[in-house]
Design a protein that fits this description.
The protein has about 250 residues and is an alpha/beta fold. It has ten helices and seven strands. The model has no long low-confidence stretch (mean pLDDT about 90).
Length: about 250
């Protein structure tokens, strides 16, 4: 069976020309699975089509999403491209290292995605928190910004170099890895229960605490069995608390 192709996810892109340049860069190396999240100027976009030139078919088949969780729902491992250091504990890889890792995961049956942020400031912290791995390019620290098309081109090139050579080792055939939608539901379950318990306190720190919790889930290579077990743990704790309270 042919492994699923990785998704190149453009998060809130601002200019149609840059979407077209990204499509052209992908198609240069044979990648055609683009997902577009909440484009600023709407979709479809004629400027994107004009810039894509011969890669217009890729844009015709691009998937449009209103938010990032929806775009990542079926994925099992997500890479976020960013030039800025983030206050998050995550694995940080170069493009070459990241695409070698992605190629192994794809060969093992996982569904992977690479996130690219909007042109003005890149991915937000909440976007990066949903990723499992960060990709950072070793560029000039005094001029670290790559435009969207350049970043996609670099990633597509490295992936094309890595993909044909990679075959999964036995311990990498982990087809039961939880999808992003399964992890999303687990994260929401815990957040809702912790909200009820008053865990996110004081208010000034609550948002940072929620993001740290989100980042924790993203760092874990959870299987579907892990997700089911952790749901059960929380449900049992709530039941125990309710029984304990009613007996008093």
């Amino acid at each position: 069976m042919t492994p699923p192709k990785p998704a190149f996810v453009l998060v809130r892109p601002q200019m149609g020309e840059n979407i077209g340049a990204a499509a052209r860069a992908m198609w240069n190396f044979g990648w055609d699975h683009m997902r577009i999240v909440a484009p600023r100027d709407g979709w479809p976009n004629q400027r994107a089509v004009a810039m894509a030139s011969g890669a217009g078919r890729l844009l015709d088949e691009a998937e449009l999403f209103g938010d990032l969780p929806g775009a990542l729902a079926d994925c099992t491992h997500v890479y976020a491209t960013t030039a800025r250091p983030r206050d998050m504990t995550k694995t940080v890889l170069s493009p070459e290292e990241a695409m070698a890792d992605l190629a192994l995961r794809q060969a093992g049956g996982e569904k992977c995605a690479v996130l690219f942020g909007p042109e003005r400031a890149g991915l937000e912290n909440d976007d990066v928190a949903r990723a499992n791995t960060i990709i950072t390019v070793p560029v000039n620290p005094d001029f670290a910004s790559l435009n969207l098309g350049q970043c996609v081109l670099l990633t597509a090139y490295e992936l094309s170099r890595q993909m044909p050579e990679k075959t999964p080792r036995v311990d990498e055939r982990r087809v039961d890895i939880a999808s992003q939608i399964e992890v999303e539901k687990l994260a929401q379950h815990y957040q809702d229960r912790l909200e009820t318990a008053g865990f996110f306190y004081p208010d000034a720190k609550a948002e940072h605490m929620r993001r740290n919790l989100r980042n924790l889930w993203a760092r874990m290579p959870l299987t579907r069995a892990d997700v089911q077990m952790l749901h059960g743990v929380m449900r049992q704790m709530v039941r125990w608390k309710e029984r304990d309270t009613s007996s008093k």
